[in-house]
Design a protein that fits this description.
alpha/beta, Rossmann fold, five-stranded parallel beta sheet, 10 helices
């Protein structure tokens, strides 16, 4: 084989090896999104198996209402929210938006994420399903007509939660999970019109003990 041809073959092989993990990751994300879009329950074995296949070390969960967007107006995105998420994704950190809002409402905001967990994926149908009794017990009886307020990130192997709900944050910390409380964002309240903290990215990276992969 001519030297130039041999070089081309080596380069092609190297490129395939390099691209394969990213292609697998994109396939996993696509399957997760399809599962969630069909109102699949996140504690189902199929979803948990897909999550385990996503081998990224760092997986950050954001609450939506009051955290990434206005508590009452889905059209108002919190200043700094999109920029923060993009910085984290650039570091190969998986971003999960997890909300008790409906899927239609959550998608209106067009906030970037890898996967979107909504009311349909852990809400009222979830409460009636005996198969997931352990997850209901975990939530400590903190159940509302929207399906509860505590996000069981531990069960899914997620790294950290950012949420404006003190009770959720405290529960996770009791269970030795990483969690950061975010002041609620509410543009109707003069005292709650705050952007995300400037050092929030650093707070997250330190909590994760982040090391570049």
């Amino acid at each position: 084989m001519p030297p130039f041809k041999a070089f081309q073959e080596i380069f092609k092989l190297k490129k395939e090896v390099t691209e394969a993990p990213q292609e697998r990751l994109e396939k996993i994300i696509a399957e997760q999104r399809e599962f969630l879009e069909k109102d699949g329950i996140i504690f189902d074995d199929k979803f948990k198996a897909l999550e385990k296949q996503d081998t990224r070390k760092y997986k950050v969960v954001f609450d939506l209402d009051g955290t990434l967007r206005d508590q009452h107006d889905s059209d108002i995105i919190r200043p700094g929210a999109i920029e923060l998420i993009e910085k984290l994704r650039d570091k190969n950190i998986k971003i999960i938006t997890w909300t008790s809002a409906s899927r239609d409402s959550a998608k209106q905001s067009k906030i970037p994420h890898d996967i979107l967990i909504t009311l349909e994926n852990y809400g009222t149908r979830f409460l009636d399903n005996k198969k997931f009794e352990d997850e209901i017990n975990y939530r400590g009886g903190v159940l509302s007509d929207l399906g509860g307020t505590i996000k069981n990130i531990k069960k899914l192997g997620y790294s950290i939660l950012l949420d404006d709900n003190y009770r959720a944050i405290n529960k996770l910390k009791e269970d030795k999970c990483q969690a950061i409380h975010i002041e609620v964002y509410d543009t109707d309240n003069r005292d709650r019109q705050n952007s995300l903290p400037e050092d929030l990215e650093q707070q997250i990276l330190e909590a994760l003990n982040y090391k570049s992969e």
